[in-house]
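Hi, here's the filled form for the chain we discussed.

Project: internal
Contact: R.S.
Residues: 337
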Amino acid sequence: MPPDITQLIKTLKREKADYIPIVELGIHPKIKERFLSKSILNLKDEVEFWYNAGYDYIKLQPIFNFDPNKIVSEDKPDSTRKWASEGEGLIKSFDDFEKFHFPKVEEINYSNFERIKEYLPEGMGVIGQYGDIFTMTWEMMGFETFSLALFENPTLVKLLNEKIGQLILSMFEYFAQSDVVDVIWYSDDIAYQSSLMISPADLDKYFFPWLKKIGELAKKCNKPFIYHSDGILYSVMDKIIDCGVDALHPIEPKAMDISEVKGRYGKKLCLIGNVDVDLLCRGREDEIRTQVLYNIEKVGFNGGYCVGSGNSIPDYVKYENYIAMIETVKEFNLRRT
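And the returned structure, exactly as it came back:
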């Protein structure tokens, strides 16, 4: 089945599409390279993977080197997994803030967006994605320092959040006006499996204003708006919807029941993901197929659902299980035609 970005857009807008799309926020390079049986060296190779795997889009990010407070995993030299500092970060005081060299808006590189049309097959679209205004705010301070500063030094938190927010918002302004970008995707975790990371009142100060601004950009340019956050989000779901979000990813299965989310919010939100990453890592292929078909039956019967993992596809997922997930969707779609 050839790619058709219009079918994905229909699904994100909760309209009945011709088939159930597959969607991922991220797939580890090793999984992609095994699928293609070759190294991924350039943008053309990336397009080749997303096209041949059956996605209606390629996800692109600006090239932006702003990850100052993460520790690269040491288990593999080329690993893309990183760990954030939960203790002290780089910015603990106003003096630290003043001395820190923040990237400038004009340093953001959009060359992949400018070149992508050379390689896109007919029908395939582009998702412009970035995120982490809230996440980078606490990571740069360290979560412990950040948590104390919410009470003891909110002015510093506000300054840092505003600085990061304006940088990231400029990317979404680019996505909004770009004739290459079909869908906008913002990712920023605000919750654990058991609760929000900080109080709703503090999220109202340091997170939701940015989500709303991005939602307004998406609405103005009539592009679907996907938001990603792990964790349990019931207590702030109405706020997420009010910010203009069209689709929610990934409906983490250990945090929220997808049938309940569909029942409560399915008329306002497309749902994406929910196939448990732990199951993809340790389960059997028949269990993967059962889970995918269950989700399609329970929440995808009338549109508004895209199949995907309950987070992303890391290198430690069983390759055969990833293939079972996407092939089950393709087989289901073929039976419908």
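Let me know if anything looks off before we file it.
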